[in-house]
Amino acid sequence: MIHVSRTITVPMARDAAFHQVAEFGRASEWDPGLVESRQETPGQPGLGTVFPIVAEFRGKRTPMNYEITEWEPTTRMVIEGTGEKATARDEIIFRDAPGGGCEITYTAALGMKGVLKLAEPFLKGTFNHMGDEAVAGLAKWLSQ
Fold first, then answer.
1. Which homologous superfamily is 2-142 in?
2. I need a labelling partner for 130 at 20 to 30 A (CA). Which of 11, 37, 54, 137 fits?
Protein backbone atom coordinates (compact mmCIF):
# COMPACT_ATOMS: atom_id res chain seq x y z
CA MET A 1 0.00 0.00 0.00
CA ILE A 2 1.14 3.51 -0.79
CA HIS A 3 0.06 6.18 1.72
CA VAL A 4 -0.16 9.91 1.04
CA SER A 5 -1.40 12.44 3.60
CA ARG A 6 -1.75 16.21 3.26
CA THR A 7 -3.35 18.92 5.40
CA ILE A 8 -4.68 22.18 4.00
CA THR A 9 -6.53 25.15 5.46
CA VAL A 10 -9.29 26.83 3.48
CA PRO A 11 -11.33 29.97 4.26
CA MET A 12 -14.64 28.09 4.05
CA ALA A 13 -16.54 27.06 7.21
CA ARG A 14 -16.15 23.40 8.21
CA ASP A 15 -19.75 22.33 7.46
CA ALA A 16 -19.71 24.02 4.02
CA ALA A 17 -16.32 22.49 3.16
CA PHE A 18 -17.53 19.05 4.23
CA HIS A 19 -20.63 19.24 2.05
CA GLN A 20 -18.61 20.47 -0.96
CA VAL A 21 -16.05 17.65 -0.68
CA ALA A 22 -18.81 15.07 -0.06
CA GLU A 23 -19.98 15.81 -3.59
CA PHE A 24 -17.23 13.50 -4.84
CA GLY A 25 -18.98 13.32 -8.20
CA ARG A 26 -17.43 16.75 -8.78
CA ALA A 27 -13.89 15.61 -7.88
CA SER A 28 -12.72 15.91 -11.49
CA GLU A 29 -13.25 19.68 -11.10
CA TRP A 30 -10.39 19.87 -8.57
CA ASP A 31 -8.30 16.70 -8.98
CA PRO A 32 -6.19 16.89 -12.16
CA GLY A 33 -5.64 13.11 -11.96
CA LEU A 34 -9.32 12.49 -12.71
CA VAL A 35 -10.76 12.86 -16.20
CA GLU A 36 -14.31 11.91 -15.21
CA SER A 37 -16.33 11.75 -12.01
CA ARG A 38 -20.02 11.59 -11.31
CA GLN A 39 -22.47 10.55 -8.61
CA GLU A 40 -24.38 7.39 -9.47
CA THR A 41 -26.56 7.13 -6.36
CA PRO A 42 -29.51 9.56 -6.44
CA GLY A 43 -30.00 12.19 -3.72
CA GLN A 44 -27.61 13.90 -1.36
CA PRO A 45 -24.25 12.18 -0.72
CA GLY A 46 -24.10 9.98 2.37
CA LEU A 47 -23.21 6.50 3.55
CA GLY A 48 -23.34 4.11 0.58
CA THR A 49 -23.27 6.78 -2.15
CA VAL A 50 -21.41 5.50 -5.23
CA PHE A 51 -19.21 7.58 -7.54
CA PRO A 52 -17.80 6.12 -10.77
CA ILE A 53 -14.57 7.90 -11.71
CA VAL A 54 -11.96 7.59 -14.44
CA ALA A 55 -8.40 8.33 -13.33
CA GLU A 56 -5.54 9.01 -15.70
CA PHE A 57 -2.23 7.53 -14.66
CA ARG A 58 0.83 7.69 -16.90
CA GLY A 59 -1.34 8.34 -19.94
CA LYS A 60 -3.73 5.46 -19.32
CA ARG A 61 -7.33 5.80 -18.20
CA THR A 62 -8.42 3.61 -15.31
CA PRO A 63 -12.09 3.36 -14.28
CA MET A 64 -12.88 2.85 -10.59
CA ASN A 65 -16.00 2.86 -8.45
CA TYR A 66 -15.82 4.77 -5.18
CA GLU A 67 -18.29 4.40 -2.31
CA ILE A 68 -18.70 6.34 0.91
CA THR A 69 -18.11 3.69 3.59
CA GLU A 70 -17.90 5.88 6.70
CA TRP A 71 -19.89 9.08 7.22
CA GLU A 72 -19.68 11.53 10.12
CA PRO A 73 -21.34 14.72 8.81
CA THR A 74 -19.17 17.85 8.99
CA THR A 75 -16.32 15.91 10.62
CA ARG A 76 -15.12 12.88 8.63
CA MET A 77 -15.80 10.70 5.64
CA VAL A 78 -14.12 7.63 4.18
CA ILE A 79 -14.50 6.79 0.53
CA GLU A 80 -13.19 3.50 -0.87
CA GLY A 81 -12.45 2.77 -4.50
CA THR A 82 -12.14 -0.44 -6.45
CA GLY A 83 -10.90 -0.90 -9.99
CA GLU A 84 -9.44 -3.62 -12.15
CA LYS A 85 -5.85 -2.68 -11.28
CA ALA A 86 -6.05 -0.95 -7.90
CA THR A 87 -7.93 -0.31 -4.67
CA ALA A 88 -8.02 2.96 -2.74
CA ARG A 89 -9.14 4.24 0.65
CA ASP A 90 -9.41 7.98 1.19
CA GLU A 91 -10.09 9.37 4.66
CA ILE A 92 -10.96 13.06 4.84
CA ILE A 93 -11.10 14.79 8.23
CA PHE A 94 -12.50 18.30 8.76
CA ARG A 95 -11.67 20.52 11.75
CA ASP A 96 -12.29 24.16 12.59
CA ALA A 97 -9.04 26.00 11.88
CA PRO A 98 -7.55 28.30 14.49
CA GLY A 99 -8.44 31.82 13.45
CA GLY A 100 -11.31 30.72 11.18
CA GLY A 101 -11.86 28.56 8.18
CA CYS A 102 -11.45 24.80 7.97
CA GLU A 103 -8.48 22.48 8.25
CA ILE A 104 -8.80 19.41 6.02
CA THR A 105 -6.56 16.36 6.36
CA TYR A 106 -6.78 14.13 3.30
CA THR A 107 -5.15 10.71 3.64
CA ALA A 108 -5.13 8.33 0.68
CA ALA A 109 -3.98 4.73 0.61
CA LEU A 110 -3.57 3.06 -2.77
CA GLY A 111 -2.89 -0.61 -3.35
CA MET A 112 -2.10 -2.17 -6.69
CA LYS A 113 -3.56 -5.53 -7.67
CA GLY A 114 -1.90 -8.64 -9.08
CA VAL A 115 1.55 -8.36 -10.58
CA LEU A 116 1.31 -4.55 -10.38
CA LYS A 117 1.70 -4.90 -6.60
CA LEU A 118 5.41 -5.45 -7.26
CA ALA A 119 5.65 -1.93 -8.71
CA GLU A 120 4.28 -0.18 -5.58
CA PRO A 121 7.69 0.81 -4.15
CA PHE A 122 8.59 2.49 -7.46
CA LEU A 123 5.32 4.42 -7.69
CA LYS A 124 5.49 6.23 -4.34
CA GLY A 125 7.08 9.37 -5.82
CA THR A 126 4.47 9.52 -8.58
CA PHE A 127 1.61 9.14 -6.11
CA ASN A 128 3.12 11.78 -3.81
CA HIS A 129 3.19 14.19 -6.76
CA MET A 130 -0.40 13.31 -7.67
CA GLY A 131 -1.43 13.86 -4.04
CA ASP A 132 0.23 17.29 -4.02
CA GLU A 133 -1.63 18.28 -7.20
CA ALA A 134 -4.98 16.95 -5.98
CA VAL A 135 -4.80 18.73 -2.61
CA ALA A 136 -3.63 21.97 -4.25
CA GLY A 137 -6.59 21.71 -6.62
CA LEU A 138 -8.95 21.06 -3.71
CA ALA A 139 -7.62 24.08 -1.78
CA LYS A 140 -8.08 26.32 -4.82
CA TRP A 141 -11.58 24.91 -5.53
CA LEU A 142 -12.72 25.48 -1.94
CA SER A 143 -11.28 29.00 -1.87
CA GLN A 144 -13.24 30.32 -4.86
1. START domain (3.30.530.20)
2. 11
